[in-house]
Amino acid sequence: MPRKKSSTLFEDSLQGLEDIVEQLEQGDISLEDSLKSFEQGVKLTQTCQKALQDAEQKVQILLAKNGQQSLEPFDDE
Q1: What pLDDT shows up at residue 48?
Q2: Would 51 be classed as within a structural domain?
Q3: In which domain, by residue range, is 41 found?
Q4: Long-range contacts of range 44-50, CB-CB < 8 Å, 24 or more positions apart?
């Protein structure tokens, strides 16, 4: 089976997270189903974090190859 591109995997995982949040916010599911959804959400979050880390690493590599400065941490304040 062909492997999904990172961006597609990220987008699919993010959409899955949004669906889970919406479902949990409605409150129409049992505690057991809520826990299963939460567990799935944790797995999707890990997938998103991995995809973002991979993307950051690729950017760092591209910047290094082009002699650019390294990335600085984002400060939103």
Answers
A1: 94
A2: yes
A3: 31-60
A4: 44/13, 44/14, 44/16, 44/17, 44/20, 45/13, 45/17, 47/9, 47/10, 47/13, 48/10, 48/13, 48/14, 48/17
